[in-house]
């Protein structure tokens, strides 16, 4: 078929969207959502990035949270001739959707990202590796209509035989998704990863906190470059505080990186916690207090083990971090919003305690 909008192709446009672009009027601009900040959108078309708002007429006809534009969406925008806010009049059908179920009785979803071609599930081969959790992620990715890949990070921290056994465990579980390996420290595997990220394809990385996603994305981007680019003339305007969540890599691949990604797949992750940290939870039965949190209590067997070196400090830190997170993500969205700020403070105080 004839592509009407060939210059959108580098932003991820293809025939699939072309067939669903009938809603767009001839005068409309088709753009891709780069970031969402409440009702304000940052969108990009071949000419650059600009701000837009969802038109009242659209809001009037669409009431579900998941119908609102989210990062990765293709939208039809009526540009404002004065160059101020564009108006989003339609959201094109989504080819894939990463979402999580919102709390409550009504089946409603919070969108995390749309039109992601490939979700790269990241696990660290050092402590974080867990086939059950991997499988849960795989289910969610497939459910959303994207293709899953697996990336094992921190390969510098384990021997080749450990890595080989982890790959074997993944295969033994019947998982056929491609498996990549990477060390952000030695850079080993980075070239392969860059090579495999194809131009005009949209990727995102999901996985537990601390597995190295940010470090890796920074490597992929050359973060300083991104920041200077943000300041100098992308046409985003002076008062832009919205952080871009859809990023264009040098090689032409698109990467979505947003806070929602970090929540994706975390629900129900505590059984994995139990498995991964059975050494710590096992020791916990020897603490003086039954409800010991293993952070500051006198007579804590876990802290003793950390201080004596029987349990590595990194392993313990990881345990505390993941435990806080899994508890946090079990809360309903509303509760969480309220606690968001307190939670940040809490994590800081825990971290401070750990440093003592
Ligand atoms: N040894 C080793 N450490 C790494 C590697 N990648 C990241 N790290 C370290 O692991 C820690 C966590 O890395 P991040 O990139 O912040 O992890 P993340 O997955 O983005 O974590 P969140 O931002 O919390 O989701 C940092 O101290 C990194 O320096 C790696 O390949 N090898
Ligand atoms: Zn304890």
Automatic annotation (TrEMBL):
Its cofactor is Zn(2+). Its main location: cytoplasm. Residues 114-262 form the EngC GTPase domain. CDD domains: YjeQ_EngC. It holds the Pfam family RsgA_GTPase. It comes from the Bacteria. Signal peptide: none annotated. One of its GO terms (biological process) is ribosomal small subunit biogenesis. Keywords: Cytoplasm, GTP-binding, Hydrolase, Metal-binding, Nucleotide-binding, Ribosome biogenesis, RNA-binding, rRNA-binding, Zinc. One of several proteins that assist in the late maturation steps of the functional core of the 30S ribosomal subunit. Helps release RbfA from mature subunits. May play a role in the assembly of ribosomal proteins into the subunit. Circularly permuted GTPase that catalyzes slow GTP hydrolysis, GTPase activity is stimulated by the 30S ribosomal subunit. HAMAP family: GTPase_RsgA. Monomer. Associates with 30S ribosomal subunit, binds 16S rRNA. Belongs to the TRAFAC class YlqF/YawG GTPase family. RsgA subfamily. This is Small ribosomal subunit biogenesis GTPase RsgA. It comes from Desulfosudis oleivorans (strain DSM 6200 / JCM 39069 / Hxd3).
């Amino acid at each position: 078929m004839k592509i009407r909008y060939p210059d959108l192709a580098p932003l991820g446009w293809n025939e699939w969207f072309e067939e669903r672009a009938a809603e767009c009027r001839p005068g409309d601009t088709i753009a891709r959502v780069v970031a969402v900040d409440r009702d304000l959108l940052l969108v990009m078309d071949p000419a650059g990035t600009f701000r837009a708002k969802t038109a009242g007429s659209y809001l009037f006809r669409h009431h579900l949270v998941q119908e609102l534009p989210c990062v990765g969406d293709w939208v039809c925008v009526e540009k404002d001739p004065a160059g101020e806010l564009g108006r989003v009049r339609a959201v094109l059908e989504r080819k894939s959707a990463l979402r999580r179920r919102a709390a409550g009785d009504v089946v409603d979803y919070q969108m995390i990202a749309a039109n992601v071609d490939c979700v790269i599930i990241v696990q660290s081969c050092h402590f974080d590796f867990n086939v059950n959790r991997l499988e849960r992620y795989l289910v969610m990715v497939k459910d959303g209509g994207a293709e899953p890949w697996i990336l094992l990070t921190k390969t510098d921290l384990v021997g080749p035989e450990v890595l080989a056994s982890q790959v074997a465990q993944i295969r033994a579980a019947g998982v056929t998704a491609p498996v990549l390996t990477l060390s952000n420290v030695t850079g080993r595997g980075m070239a392969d990863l860059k090579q495999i990220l194809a131009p005009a394809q949209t990727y995102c990385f999901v996985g537990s906190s601390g597995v190295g996603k940010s470090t890796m994305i920074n490597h992929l981007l050359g973060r300083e470059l991104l920041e200077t680019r943000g300041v100098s003339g992308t046409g985003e305007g002076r008062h832009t505080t919205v952080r871009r969540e859809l990023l264009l890599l040098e090689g032409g691949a698109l990467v979505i990186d947003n806070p929602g990604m970090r929540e994706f797949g975390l629900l129900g992750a505590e059984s994995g916690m139990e498995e991964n940290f059975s050494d710590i939870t096992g020791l916990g039965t020897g603490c003086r207090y039954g409800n010991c949190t293993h952070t500051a209590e006198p007579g804590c067997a876990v802290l003793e083990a950390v201080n004596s070196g029987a349990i590595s400090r990194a392993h313990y830190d990881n345990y505390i971090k993941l435990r806080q997170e899994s508890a946090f993500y079990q809360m309903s969205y509303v509760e969480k919003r309220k606690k968001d700020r307190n939670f940040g403070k809490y994590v800081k105080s825990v971290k401070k305690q750990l440093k003592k």
